[in-house]
Amino acid sequence: MIDISESVMQFLLALIVAGPLIGAVGALLPAPPGLRGKNPDQAVLRHGVTVTGAILIAAVVLALGFDHDHPSKMQATTDVSWIAALDIRVHLGIDGISLPLVVLTALLTFLCALHSYFKMPKGPSPKAFVALLLLLESGTLATFAALDLILFFLAFEMVLVPMYFLIARWGGSEGVAGGRQAAAWKFILYTLLGSVVMLLGLLLIGLKAGTFDMVALATDNGRGLSTSVQVIAVLAIGLGLAVKTPMWPLHSWLPDAHTAAPTVGSVLLAGVLLKMGTYGFVRIVLPIAPHGMHTFAPYLAALAVAGIIYGSLACLSLARQGAGGDLKRLIAYSSVGHMGFVLLGISTMTATGVNGALFANIAHGLITGLLFFLVGGLKDRYGTADLDTLAGATGAALYGRAPRLGGLLAFAAVASLGLPGLAGFWGEMLAMFGAFSPAAGLSRPAFLTYMAIACFGTLLTASYLLLVVRRVCMGVKPKEAAGAAPFADVQSYEIAAWTPLVALTVLAGLWPAILLGLSDPAVQKLLAGGTS
Length: 532
Hints:
Layout: H1 6-28, H2 40-65, E1 75-83, E2 88-94, H3 99-118, H4 126-145, H5 149-158, H6 160-170, H7 179-209, H8 214-220, H9 227-244, H10 253-260, H11 263-288, H12 290-319, H13 327-347, H14 351-382, H15 387-391, H16 398-401, H17 403-416, H18 423-436, H19 444-473, H20 492-510, H21 513-527
Helix pairs in contact: 1-2, 1-4, 2-3, 2-4, 3-4, 3-11, 3-14, 3-20, 4-5, 4-6, 5-7, 6-7, 7-9, 7-10, 8-11, 9-11, 9-12, 10-13, 11-13, 11-14, 12-13, 12-19, 13-14, 13-18, 13-19, 14-17, 14-18, 14-20, 14-21, 17-19, 18-19, 18-20
């Protein structure tokens, strides 16, 4: 780690949040004469790689300068008045909970920009594409860094418009009823309706407590709010966050959105946007309204395990031969199950469960981001993500036709099913450990039942992922037609975009303390109301 002054840390965090926004404006402006090159489209795509690369470097430097001896302390804080009449402030900061999500967002956005430079999705001008990608990054990073309830809400909403246009203008309509426009409308209507309800809950907390400052509210730990206010606030805020997570049965926008979205849209949607909902539960609901959360925790856990089973059964149905299942749609349903483990961990209201939820968040971003990249690569080669078409009568035989691509797909699948030694294992295990011994006052028999159902869900997860590997990776290699171009294995730009995700999946699996050492002290403090 390196020693960086607080003022430099503040500058880095401000740059990380505002830099992509400035870069988005720059993407829409004419390129300077010396930077236009022979192809203006490539110039603006190169601009996207440069800006997201600079943000990633700033995030890495911020992580290196972070005081790892005190991860529960808010660092790199900026706190200036914005709307004085309502006491709304531009209050930013990071701790051991938000830092990994900031780095994950910066990494995935850079990898998406790099991938798009070589494989731009079909659609309108790359200028708008790059600007929307950077706007999406700025909103997501601001969500994880915001320490004011209203600022959090504005950043939370900021990502909706760019994601809508990425789906509607650069997406595909294969396998989506009504096409990509319908999928985009479904995405934005669900999330906007959930956000309206969430705003009411945030306003209720701020007006009743007399402040919108999330640090002060977390330190108060709900003592300034009556139980009835907390219950209403958790119900309202929880609904908005549950839609974004997504929690069953509020998930139905997700499969269509993922199926229609371009590859980079699916990577960012699964890798970072879904994390905004669960992050809100940990940052806002748990510490600010603990009594209200205690009331709803058993119901949240029940819906979480229902999502685990539902997502797994939906994936099994899509994976079977003759079902006409789309691989992107299958991974989308798998996200419903995986995020169910995150919600189960949060619902236990224990340090073990919440740490597991935060770990599973990061693991899901790495593994599912890699899966969507791989499926995008398959679709580029085959022209479809339909599993029956890919597998054919004898299997797609990726091991024989493109062994590196097949090996990576098998690796991502076993990581997703929670193989010990890879990142997917620790979060789900800790979430179930939390359910084994939930917080005081919660029904242990009920949570033991939820834990048993979640364990069964892991078996179903392994079933559908291994079935996908068998159908896509195994089989008899077909004879290539005379004069036909050879089936392409992993390209150099794909190696560059996918290798960091593979390496981090292994690193987090073998060295979980790299994340748990950051999150645990911050979670302990959050659950104790800032007194530890």
